[in-house]
């Protein structure tokens, strides 16, 4: 144990005795004798913000992460004291602040200790750079587990490790590489089956130590800014993640086609190649909704231009692709080529929109176009200008989505591969150096891009995809995990990263299926597709240096497997859309790691491979070559094997067969899974009936299906359809009630129930109290056709 005296000798300073307390509505200010201020704000009964200032000063309050629309409101706030502590009580938490040190302990209302400061807040003045190095240390407990932190390519449970947050272009990163592209300084702690979260909203290069330096201590610090963190109590992990997502924001619904399959490569050109790829998808009947143009579509890598030799008439091409169901997405990087004849460069130069070095000149760095300058997206005026640049690309040419790359920002041939620290940023009117703005640069670029695409794609909905991100980026953009590698280890990484991103508020994420660098074997590609179709964002991408990476680039068997799983994804579209709706409205992650699904079961705390797709499908990818199946953990509860419909008791490890054309998949009993027919792209077919796979349970289970026009904004005016189902299973009957919300008329008139696992023989069926002619029942498959607006169906044995 290091003593305070030793730490003080190292230059650390500590708050001492509280001399003054002031309350302003939901905020309390505790000031110490040595002029440290703790500003404690109650946002919700279970969400409390702790912010510390020194020398009696708090900075002007500003955050890029916090959603300006986040709702706050609590039921109870009371300040009291005893001999040693000031005590703040909410309806869910008791926060004790030690009078002599400002150290805090947070308990639930039953008195269970949830989290407690070790040294608590302390700081070191930074004589070289100015400001403070702000630090926090917390006690941690044996068995306490840690999750979150965005895109870290490591084991889901972060315990025993140290990480830093500094957005970094990480070509061919590996397991353990840290940091990589994104900075999400949010983690979840799970102690004694109770979950809490800590969001350290500080954009500097923060570090988190989860019991690595000392076994019983978790700490986090940053070389500038304020100690400013939100404490979010559960006790359910779902409540922590949802509250974090409320705080940092939720996305709007994307157009449904973005949940389809997308194909990318560096690069498809010229036009004939793009068309050839598109045609091949249709010829081979492999569904696909999006095709990407990487940097070579531009003229000398100048953003917002086209290479007219490769793409003589982009508007025509984009339209022709669209006629065949393909939406075109193009890449846009932040580096603007220094070229006095290039209008984008000229406009930005004349208006002073580029980032500048400390002493005045523009920040210049080499990227794809050669020497470039870089817009300062942290300036609102620059963002508005940037958004306007999409008028032609999106509004006139018809591009439907924009892909933002290199926005860490990445710079070639320099140490650190990014801007030097002295570069200046506006930071929305809080001028600062790159040390503070670095981690948000990518998000502010994606935000400006989003504003532009959204404006010019209207009345359709936009798609933006980004490589770099800071907390809150999910309000504007989807993301991918950057330049991974075509190895089996990376398949494991991909699985962990997407689950971790889902826990970190950023569900709309995928990986480069098959791997970006190097070339996958057919087997690896097949296994990756099998996992990738369960990721919220589903795109194949590759560097193109080693060969082709389309679903048909291997052999016929792999092509068939790719088709089978992409088709499976298309049948799940209404299920995917409903999970996106739950994410967009309630902040519920689209994928749930097993520990999120059942935190009470300690077996889940160190699981990495199994996850829940949506609410009730458990998936476990095959991540080793030459597998005929694998051992895996089936979470507690009762499940049906998706492929065989075998009924299984969970809470145990088991072997599951999964030859090269299969993946272990289980559906929780009581689930109602909506399915569409296979389409080659969203909207190809008019949906004639909605199929519901009903998995019998002797229980009462609720589920829902969200649908709307699949694009556009009418849903905001109530034109959506939300079907709520209540399934009630008893030994000899099964009842399903439907309640419909919203006023969107779905295209289909029929709902087709597919009954799975009925433990009795059907003797009678009643639909809205009228007997159903059993001759209409397909007895083999137990298909039951109902009018889409049925209220109740009773299946009686
Ligand atoms: O320096 O645009 O991660 O997806 O294909 C490489 C070319 C730049 C890196 C991205 C990758 C993209 C590639 N880009």
From TrEMBL:
<dbReference type="InterPro" id="IPR030458">
    <property type="entry name" value="Glyco_hydro_31_AS"/>
</dbReference>
<dbReference type="Pfam" id="PF13802">
    <property type="entry name" value="Gal_mutarotas_2"/>
</dbReference>
<dbReference type="Pfam" id="PF01055">
    <property type="entry name" value="Glyco_hydro_31_2nd"/>
</dbReference>
<dbReference type="InterPro" id="IPR048395">
    <property type="entry name" value="Glyco_hydro_31_C"/>
</dbReference>
<dbReference type="GO" id="GO:0005975">
    <property type="term" value="P:carbohydrate metabolic process"/>
</dbReference>
<dbReference type="GO" id="GO:0004553">
    <property type="term" value="F:hydrolase activity, hydrolyzing O-glycosyl compounds"/>
</dbReference>
<keyword id="KW-0378">Hydrolase</keyword>
<dbReference type="InterPro" id="IPR017853">
    <property type="entry name" value="GH"/>
</dbReference>
<feature type="domain" description="DUF5110">
    <location>
        <begin position="689"/>
        <end position="757"/>
    </location>
</feature>
<feature type="domain" description="Glycoside hydrolase family 31 TIM barrel">
    <location>
        <begin position="251"/>
        <end position="579"/>
    </location>
</feature>
<dbReference type="GO" id="GO:0030246">
    <property type="term" value="F:carbohydrate binding"/>
</dbReference>
<dbReference type="InterPro" id="IPR033403">
    <property type="entry name" value="DUF5110"/>
</dbReference>
<comment type="similarity">
    <text>Belongs to the glycosyl hydrolase 31 family.</text>
</comment>
<dbReference type="Pfam" id="PF21365">
    <property type="entry name" value="Glyco_hydro_31_3rd"/>
</dbReference>
<dbReference type="InterPro" id="IPR011013">
    <property type="entry name" value="Gal_mutarotase_sf_dom"/>
</dbReference>
<feature type="domain" description="Glycosyl hydrolase family 31 C-terminal">
    <location>
        <begin position="587"/>
        <end position="673"/>
    </location>
</feature>
<protein>
    <submittedName>
        <fullName>Glycosyl hydrolase</fullName>
    </submittedName>
</protein>
<keyword id="KW-0326">Glycosidase</keyword>
<dbReference type="InterPro" id="IPR000322">
    <property type="entry name" value="Glyco_hydro_31_TIM"/>
</dbReference>
<dbReference type="InterPro" id="IPR025887">
    <property type="entry name" value="Glyco_hydro_31_N_dom"/>
</dbReference>
<feature type="domain" description="Glycoside hydrolase family 31 N-terminal">
    <location>
        <begin position="38"/>
        <end position="209"/>
    </location>
</feature>
<dbReference type="Pfam" id="PF17137">
    <property type="entry name" value="DUF5110"/>
</dbReference>
<dbReference type="InterPro" id="IPR013780">
    <property type="entry name" value="Glyco_hydro_b"/>
</dbReference>
């Amino acid at each position: 144990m290091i003593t305070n005296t030793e730490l003080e000798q190292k230059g650390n300073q500590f708050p001492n005795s509280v001399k003054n307390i002031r309350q302003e509505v939901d905020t309390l200010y505790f000031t110490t004798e040595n002029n440290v201020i703790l500003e404690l704000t109650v946002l919700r009964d279970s969400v409390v913000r702790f912010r510390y200032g020194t020398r009696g000063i708090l900075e002007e309050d500003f955050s890029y992460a916090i959603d300006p629309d986040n709702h706050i409101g609590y039921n109870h706030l009371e300040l009291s004291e005893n001999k040693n502590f000031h005590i703040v009580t909410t309806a869910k938490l008791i926060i004790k602040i030690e009078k002599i040190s400002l150290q805090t302990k947070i308990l639930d209302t039953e008195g269970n200790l949830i989290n407690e400061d070790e040294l608590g807040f302390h700081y070191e003045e930074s004589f070289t750079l100015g400001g403070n190095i702000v630090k926090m240390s917390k006690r941690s407990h044996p068995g306490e587990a840690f999750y979150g932190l965005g895109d870290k390519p490591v084991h889901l449970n972060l315990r025993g490790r140290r990480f830093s947050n500094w957005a970094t272009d990480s070509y061919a990163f590996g397991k353990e590489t840290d940091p990589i592209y994104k900075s999400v300084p949010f983690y979840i702690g799970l102690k004694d089956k109770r979950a809490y979260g800590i969001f350290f909203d500080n954009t500097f290069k923060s570090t988190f130590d989860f019991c690595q330096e000392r076994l019983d201590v978790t700490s986090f610090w940053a070389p500038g800014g304020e100690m400013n963190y939100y404490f979010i109590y559960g006790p359910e992990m779902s409540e922590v993640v949802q509250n974090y997502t409320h705080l940092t924001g939720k996305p709007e619904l994307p157009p449904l086609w973005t949940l389809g399959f997308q194909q990318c490569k560096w690069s498809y050109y010229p036009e004939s190649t793009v068309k050839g790829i598109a045609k091949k998808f249709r010829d081979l009947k492999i569904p696909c909704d999006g095709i990407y143009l990487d940097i070579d579509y531009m003229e000398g890598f100048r953003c917002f231009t086209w290479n007219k030799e490769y793409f003589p008439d982009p508007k025509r091409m984009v339209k022709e692709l669209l006629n065949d169901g393909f939406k075109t997405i193009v890449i846009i990087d932040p580096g603007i080529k220094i070229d006095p004849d290039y209008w984008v460069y000229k406009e930005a130069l004349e208006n002073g929109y580029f980032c500048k070095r400390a002493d005045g000149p523009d920040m210049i760095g080499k990227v794809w176009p050669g020497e470039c300058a870089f817009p300062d997206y942290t300036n609102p005026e620059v963002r508005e200008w940037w958004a306007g640049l999409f008028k032609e690309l999106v509004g006139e040419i018809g591009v439907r989505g924009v892909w933002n790359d290199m926005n860490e920002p990445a710079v070639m041939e320099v140490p650190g591969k990014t801007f030097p620290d002295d570069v200046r940023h506006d930071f929305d009117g809080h001028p600062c150096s790159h040390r503070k703005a670095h981690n948000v640069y990518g998000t502010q670029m994606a935000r400006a891009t989003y504003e532009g695409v959204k404006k010019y794609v209207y009345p359709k909905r936009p798609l933006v995809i980004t490589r770099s991100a800071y907390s809150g980026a999910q309000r504007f953009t989807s993301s991918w995990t950057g330049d991974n590698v075509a190895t089996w280890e990376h398949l494991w990484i991909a699985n962990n990263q997407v689950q971790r991103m889902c826990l970190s508020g950023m569900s709309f994420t995928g990986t480069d299926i098959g791997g970006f660098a190097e070339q996958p074997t057919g087997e690896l590609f097949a296994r990756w597709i099998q996992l990738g179709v369960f990721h919220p964002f589903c795109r194949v991408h590759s560097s193109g240096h080693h060969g082709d990476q389309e679903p048909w680039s291997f052999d016929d068997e792999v092509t068939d497997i790719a088709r089978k799983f992409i088709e499976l994804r298309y049948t799940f579209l209404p299920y995917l859309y409903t999970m996106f709706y739950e994410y967009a409205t309630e902040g519920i992650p689209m994928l749930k790691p097993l520990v999120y699904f059942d935190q009470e079961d300690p077996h889940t705390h160190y699981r990495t491979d199994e996850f829940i797709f949506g609410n009730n499908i458990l998936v476990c990818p095959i991540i080793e070559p030459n597998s005929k199946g694998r051992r895996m953990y089936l979470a507690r509860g009762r499940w049906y094997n998706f492929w065989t419909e075998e009924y299984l008791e969970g809470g145990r490890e088991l072997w599951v067969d999964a030859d090269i054309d299969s993946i272990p998949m289980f559906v929780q009993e009581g689930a109602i899974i909506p399915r569409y027919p296979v389409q080659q792209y969203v909207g190809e077919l008019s949906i004639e009936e909605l199929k519901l796979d009903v998995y019998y349970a002797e229980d009462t289970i609720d589920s829902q299906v969200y649908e709307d026009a699949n694009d556009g904004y009418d849903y905001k005016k109530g034109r959506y359809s939300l079907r709520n189902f209540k399934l009630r299973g008893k030994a000899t009957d099964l009842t399903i009630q439907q309640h419909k919300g919203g006023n969107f008329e779905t295209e289909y008139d029929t709902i087709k129930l597919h009954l799975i696992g009925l433990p009795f023989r059907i003797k009678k069926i009643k639909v809205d109290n009228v007997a159903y002619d059993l001759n209409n029942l397909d007895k083999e498959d137990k298909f039951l056709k109902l009018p889409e607006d049925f209220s109740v169906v009773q299946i009686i044995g």
